[in-house]
Fold this sequence. Notes:
- GO terms for molecular function: metal ion binding; transferase activity.
- The chain is an alpha+beta fold.
- Helices cover 32% and strands 25% of the residues.
- A hairpin with a 2-residue loop joins strand 6 (163-168) and strand 7 (171-175).
- Helix 3 packs parallel to helix 6 and helix 5 (141-158) packs antiparallel against helix 6 (245-258).
Amino acid sequence: MIRCKPLLGTYVEIRAKNSSGIFNSFELNEVINEAFSAIESVQSLMGFHNPDSELSKINERAHIETLAIHPWTFEVLRIAKEIHEASSGIFDCGVGSKLVEAGLLPNHHAVPRQVWGGLTDLILEKPNHVRSTKPVQIDLGGIAKGFAVDKAVEILKAAPVDSGLVNAGGDMRVFGVEPHELQIRSPSNPKELISIGSLQDGAIASTSLYYSDTASNSSRSPLVNPMNMEQIEFIDSYSVIASECIYADALTKVLAISNNSSHPCFTQFSAHGIRIS
C-alpha cells in the first residue's frame, strides 16, 4: 500500500507491504494513518513557522525560565547537541536568527536583533526540561524531519509491517528484507536521476539546491556555517547514509559545510557521506 500526504513542508510518502497476511487492507491503512499522525505530531511540536509550537515557545521563553517540554522535543534537542559536540560545532541548529534575517524564516513577535546563543547555550535537564543561558533561535528543520521519519518507521515496524519505507522529500528510511534502489537527482540537472546502489534497513538524507537559483545567491541559501554565521553557496549534492534518518539528515550539514566525508563524526555514527558534483 502506498499513501502520500503534504507534511513537513514537503510531500511524505509511506509504503507498507504486508506479505505475511497479518493485516487486511483496512487494518494496514489504519497503521499508516497512525504513522502519519506521528509525523503530524512532530510537525506540531517542532515547527519553526508555527508561532504556537513548542519550539517557538522555547525560542521565546527558554532564556527566561525553565520549560517542561515533550519527550520527543527533548530527544531531538539531545541528539542535536550530541551531533554538535561530535562535529566540533559544524552542526548547530541554533542558526535560526540568520535565516530569519535573510527572510527564509518568519520573525515571530517582531523579535529584535540581539546577540543570539546557540546549542551550547541550551541546557537540557531531565526529565524533559530545557533552559537557555542566552536568547536562542533554534531551527530544528531537517533534523526534526528526520526524527519524524524515524517515528513513522518505528510505528510501522511495531505493527508489525513486513517491509516498507517513509520518504519525506529527501529524507528516507527503508526497512524489511527487500532492498530499495537509491537514486539521487543530479545537482546540475534535477530531472536526471543518478543511481548509487540500493539500501536495506537504513536511512538516507540528501541536501542540494534543486530547482532553485539560490546557488548563485548566498543571501537565499538555507545552509549557514555556524563558525562564522554566514550562508554558504553550494552547487553540489550531499547525501548521508546512516541507520536512522535523524542522524543522516543532520550529518548532511556536516558534509556540506566541511566538504569532508572522512570527518570523525561519520565514523562515530556509523554513517557514510556521498558528494555528487
